[in-house]
Amino acid sequence: MSIDDPIAIAADIGGTHMRAALVTQSGKLLVRGAIDTRPDDGIEVAATRLADLVDSLDSRDSGKDHGSPVGFGISTAGPLDPATGIYKNPPNLQAWDEMSMKPTLEPRFGVPVHVGHDATLAAFAETRFGPHQGAKNLLYVTISTGVGGGIIANGEMVTGSEGHAGEVGHITVIPGAQTCNVGCDGCFEGNASGPAIAKAALARIDAGEITSIWEAADRDREKVSSKLVFEAANNGDAVAVALREHALKAIGIGLGSLLNIFDPEALVVGGGVTMGLVDRWDDVVTEVKNYSLAHFQQDPRLHITTLGDDVSLLGAAGLAFRHAG
Ligand SMILES: [Zn+2]
């Protein structure tokens, strides 16, 4: 690196934690930190605390063998208007409705602040850093506490008319099956998210079915999780195998449909449930093939993310660099 190499300030804001990093153009995180979000204190207080965190990173960045920040990118849970950064009734940041961090951060750092939806920026990060760099059509799907997606089509981030695009978790995949928290019938999230798999396991336990999941959870409803279900399935527990097959079917229909619609160069999958299925990846691929068209049978272009937990920060940095030209 030289003092001519630009960097970006990147932040990842969720309902619980705010993370920040200084990031190079090649995607190296020079220095990073994290603090609690405390959304109920209000967005101005949070933005000021985030700015203080960035200043503390700068003072820890002892090497300083790089140029000044070209911009400040923020990846955050939405919904929000990506043009203005204004939140639109965000379920995990409710006190911030109709507000933005930009009025606090832009004057303080003297660089443009750009805001994007976390899943969309995760997809964008995959096209800018890592093995799918340069992809013009790419989908990122996280299967975790929820199921969310980001779409890059023809080289552009697809945000939708009001910033709501990419809600792939709520496409109906198995009508009549479990509903999600929003209440949709048989949606992807309602049948493949971590909480959905745990809920399905508890329903079978409540119905009197015998499964080792219950003992593994110390007979504590709170401890029943997709992780325990997958572990029990790997040990041959019949109930757990059935639960895993149901989740795999929901994943197969969800991801297979997305392949058919978008014809991406890569469909990148992340999140805790995905990681729990790594040792059954062939089954995931088979299910996705079952529900996608003939031209995906040879290569369904399905990949596990290699960017890990940094994907949101990298997406935020990528956004700042993109706007800087
Ligand atoms: Zn739903």
What report would you give on this structure?
It is a single chain. By secondary structure, the protein is of the alpha/beta class. It folds into 2 domains: 7-130 and 309-324, Nucleotidyltransferase, domain 5 (2-Layer Sandwich); 138-304, ATPase, nucleotide binding domain (Nucleotidyltransferase, domain 5, 2-Layer Sandwich). Helices cover 38% and strands 19% of the residues. The chain has 11 helices and 12 strands. It has helices at 43-60, 102-109, 118-128, 188-192, 194-206, 212-216, 226-234, 238-262, 272-276, 281-290, 311-324; strands at residues 7-13, 17-24, 29-36, 69-76, 80-81, 86-87, 113-117, 138-143, 147-153, 156-157, 266-270, 302-304. Strands 3-2-1-4-7 form a 5-stranded mixed beta sheet, with helices on both faces. A 5-stranded mixed beta sheet has the order 10-9-8-11-12, sandwiched between helices. Strands 5-6 form a two-stranded antiparallel ribbon. A hairpin with a 4-residue loop joins strand 2 (17-24) and strand 3. The longest helix is centred in the last third of the chain and has 25 residues, at 238-262. The protein is globular and about 60 Å long. The model has no long low-confidence stretch (mean pLDDT 95). The structure holds zinc ion (ZN). Zinc ion (ZN) binds next to helix 4.
Question: Any ligands, ions or cofactors bound here, and which?
Answer: zinc ion
CATH superfamily of the largest domain: ATPase, nucleotide binding domain
Radius of gyration over alpha carbons?
21 Å
Order of helices and strands: EEEHEEEHEHEEEHHHHHEHHEH
Q: State the helix count.
A: 11
Q: What class would the helix/strand composition place it in?
A: alpha/beta
Q: What is the number of independent domains?
A: 2
Tell me what the CATH architecture of the largest domain is: 2-Layer Sandwich
Q: In percent, how much strand structure appears in the residues?
A: 15-25%
User: Would you give the CATH topology of the largest domain?
Assistant: Nucleotidyltransferase, domain 5
Distance between the termini: 19 Å
Low-pLDDT regions: none
What is the typical, i.e. mean, pLDDT? 95
